[in-house]
Amino acid sequence: MSLPPGFLDELKTRASMSQVAGRKVMWDTRKSNQGKGDMWAPCPFHQEKTASFHVDDKKGFYYCFGCHAKGDVVSFVQETENVSFIEAVEIIAREAGMQMPARDPKAQEKADRRSQLADVMEQAVQFFRLNLKTNAAAPARDYLTKRGLGDAALERWNIGFAPDGWQALWDHLTGKGVAEDLILAAGLAKPSNQGKRPYDTFRNRIMFPIRDPRGRAIAFGGRAMDPNDNAKYLNSPETELFDKGRSLYNHGPAREAAGKGQPLIVAEGYMDVIALSEAGFTSTVAPLGTAVTEAQLQLLWRISDEPIIALDGDTAGLRAAMRVVDLALPLIEAGKSLRFCLMPEGLDPDDLLRSEGAGAMRRLLDQAIPMVQLLWRRETEGKTFDSPERKAALDVTLSEAIRHVRDQSLRRHYGDEINRLRRILFDGAPEGQGGKARKFQRGGFGRSFGKPIPIPMPETKSSALAAAGTAFEDHLREAVILATLVRHPALVDRFMADLERMNTTRPEHDAVRSALLQTGGAKPDELTRICGADALEKLTQARHVQIAPGVRSGAGQDIAEMSVAEELAKLAARRGAIRELDDALEDFSGAADEVLTTRLRQAAEARNKSEKSGSDDRAEYDLGPNGARVKRDEKQKLSSLLDQIDFSKGRRDRP
């Protein structure tokens, strides 16, 4: 529905951000100032112990300095309650005592119908629960008792039983005056193809209600009591209430438990979720009869940054784990990934808990492996790499897999970890040691040269070459970026993501950066209140910053935007070049070869490309090895290192 002009503003004025958020967080009384509406608490969106979640009641917004979640009172309710925009507005309006505007008749009709369907589903829950206590359900009760579920657990999970009759539920609901079209629309019955009365969807099954995050029954899962039944487990069909690929079993309680510090566990089925929760692992969910979907992954990451996928230790469980890996690779990002806990062969979590107890399960969860290791195991376990061709095929396969990771920084870390595992496999080098120089790069693995390369000596790491491209230049670029955004606060929203990723070199820069993120762009006096006048003054002390296009008095917003974008690009290029130099140093062994020279030349060229090559600074450059253009001071550093290289020593190891 569309809201009339001014309604949302009035709602946000009446609704206190701290009161709404206070239902989900515990305020840090030492850090908060309630009188000024400046409130701090551990973040409800990710697990933490420190109070990095900030609410500004006067401005009506929140921001987490840990996970960078941000928004207003409406988005907070949307995220924490997992509801739509309009539903969030309705919740806030109800609490604020505001009357919602009249709905569009069609929208109202749709909402009313969903409420009616949810009511029908709840009546079905009660019917199945009563039937579990009948004589006909004795085998079902025996089965549940053998699975370790007592009366209290059955009550908590609302487990029931669908009688073995064609119209038992149908007759019960119609006898209560429920309209036939609602029973069919809820997926509780199916029309007959033979012109007879509709028949019950679930018959002779143990029934598990599936609820949405708000606790409303939206579907059922049924386990067959007849071993000859075509489907051991059967879910409700998709309805106006139930979208199987966008729902999770036990979503609401698991989200609440995760917010209190429990690790989020993803199991395969209903009984696994119930067994784990009853054993104390209360933040456990399950997909609903299918492989995990992209929508379900996003739901999981809204609950926890690193869910643990706990799958059966059989072939099917491993295949399911690999499907999750392939689905997740293009979606992961810094701070959002998965870990995998594989059960012992032939056991599921329920089996393990009943045979060895919660302690054994906790130990397995503590040993959950990151996704990159499962990817490595898939491509290497049970395979032999006794020829260059097989090794090359592995390189190509892994390179193609990692290329799906969209985040460039994360992709590089994946390459580093694969390279470490590869050295262990092919060279037998223990973790943390060298191995032959087979470096995994963006395009695959490099060649192997020379003898094993030792760990770089401390004096090498701190050499002039390793420090080429001083932090002073980074400091100036950061100052230009921040000073420009302070002068042009309207640009902060445009560069919000870049600010969040920026690693600053000085504490005062980080203070200004945090203030800009916190306020989303504000007047200098507001920034001064947050980060202090000293931090702002230090930004423009350097002449280079004072004359920057976006900082100078009278600079237009277009010029300022171009200036910030350019400086961010140069800063990223410069730091990328420094990482290349670090990679080159890792290949240096005191008996370096032509590969090192090439790596150094490439790194220097990358470094040079990140610099502006205007006429004023041309005199600062000379030609380096193989014609590479190198800054004069960097040429001296390169020359000093190259003078130490004994190239004949490297060539003796080659045919």
From TrEMBL:
- Tell me the domain of life: Bacteria
> Which protein family is named in the record?
Belongs to the DnaG primase family.
Enzyme Commission number(s) of this protein: 2.7.7.101
What HAMAP family does the record tag this protein with? DNA_primase_DnaG
Q: Where is this region: Disordered?
A: 604-655
Q: Where is the Toprim domain?
A: 262-344
What's this protein's name? DNA primase
For this protein, the record's PANTHER family field holds: DNA PRIMASE
Q: Which residues form a coiled coil?
A: none
* Record has Transferase as a keyword: yes
Domain remark text: Contains an N-terminal zinc-binding domain, a central core domain that contains the primase activity, and a C-terminal DnaB-binding domain.
Q: Per the entry, which co-factors are needed?
A: Zn(2+)
Q: What SUPFAM superfamilies does the record tag this protein with?
A: DNA primase core, Zinc beta-ribbon
Tell me the function of this protein: RNA polymerase that catalyzes the synthesis of short RNA molecules used as primers for DNA polymerase during DNA replication.
Which organism was this protein described from? Boseongicola aestuarii
**What NCBIfam families does the record point to?**
dnaG
What does the Swiss-Prot or TrEMBL cofactor note state?
Answer: Binds 1 zinc ion per monomer.
